[in-house]
Amino acid sequence: MLSNRPQSPKEEDCCGNSCNPCIFDVHKNLLKQWELKKLNSKSNNLLEPLVYKLFKVYELKQLNNDYISLILRYSDKEINDGRVIFNPGQHVVINYLKWSKPFTPISWTDDTIKFLIRIYADGINTKRLKNLESGELIKVRGPYGDFVYSRNKFKSIVMFSVGSGLAAFVPIIKSIIDDEEDETRVCLNAGFRSVDLVPLTKNLQLFTDYWNVECNLYLTEDASKKVNGINIEKGRIDEKICKCILDNYLASSSLVLICGTEKFNLSLERWIVEYNFVNYHVFK
User: Of 62, 133, 148, 259, which cross-links 168 as Cys (Cβ 3.0–4.6 Å)?
Assistant: First the structure.
């Protein structure tokens, strides 16, 4: 994401005397120019779908017993005019010690990519990622994924995720709340085992500070803990819960997004089609 987005003026910055040009009109024009520049910059992506690029481990944090966050920084000092560019929801392939796996970034800057990674108890390769040291080299290629979000195309977006599938939705929600002209309502429904194993809790709380974002967590174990701004329910995201959620939305004006395990994705896709929600995308 470009980091030089024009700063939004405050209400008190306007004199209220109908001056020309108004500061809000100036901001609107600058925002259009910024968006056009962002669109034109796609040809300068540091990443390539067919070629691995070298990144270095910049930061690794243990979030809880199941998840880590990993930040990679582009290793070439001569970046020139290139930058890391993604459409929210896209993913890359990471290659480390001849092991490759797709991961979806939760955020990025001009030269860094941040990932949410699930560490499996019996997963040799994910444990290797957990033990990475600063400066180690990682190969990255991409981005991939054909999902393209369009501002205000739908009145509501209903998101269903389980586990690390949450990663695909974080940059999408961020792009919506960062866009002052986007009035799309977001309903995030994410499944985990317990509150203690939910990564990015603070991010989710910040999202719910916005009028158009709602977050529901469905926990299979202890659901007694409270998290400010987030609704917590006991149980799995099953057909009954899916139907109960979708009953609050019109199929014609809603987009449904799904990201989780293969079994989860297949089940959710089948249910929403049965409920006549034809506008949907499955992140695989």
Answer: 259
> For 35, how many CA atoms within 13 A lie in the half-sphere containing its CB?
11
What pTM did the predictor assign?
A: 0.83
Q: State mean pLDDT over 163-186.
A: 96
Binding-site residues from annotation: 102, 116
CA–CA–CA angle 160, 163, 166 (5° rounding): 55
What's the pLDDT score for residue 172?
Answer: 98
Feature table: binding site for FAD: 102, 116
Burial zone of 139 (CB within 10 Å; 0-12 exposed, 13-18 middle, 19+ buried): middle
pLDDT at 81 exceeding the cut of 90: no
Report residue 216 CA to chain centroid gap: 16
Percent over 90 (pLDDT), the chain: 69
C-beta separation of 279 from 249 below 8 A: no
pLDDT digits (tens, 9 = 90+) for 220-274: 998 788 899 999 999 999 999 999 999 999 999 999 999 999 999 999 999 999 9
Sheet with 231-234: list strands edge to edge: 231-234, 213-219, 185-192, 156-162, 254-259, 280-283
**CA atoms within a 13 Å half-sphere pointing along the CA-CB vector of 126:** 19
User: Under 8 Å CB-to-CB from 78, ≥6 apart: which residues?
Assistant: none
Residues near 108 by beta carbon (within 8 Å), at least 6 away in sequence: 1, 84, 86, 114
What tokens appear for 21 in the block? 């040009």
List the one residue out of 248, 242, 233, 234 whose CA is nearest residue 265: 242
| DSSP label at residue 83 | B
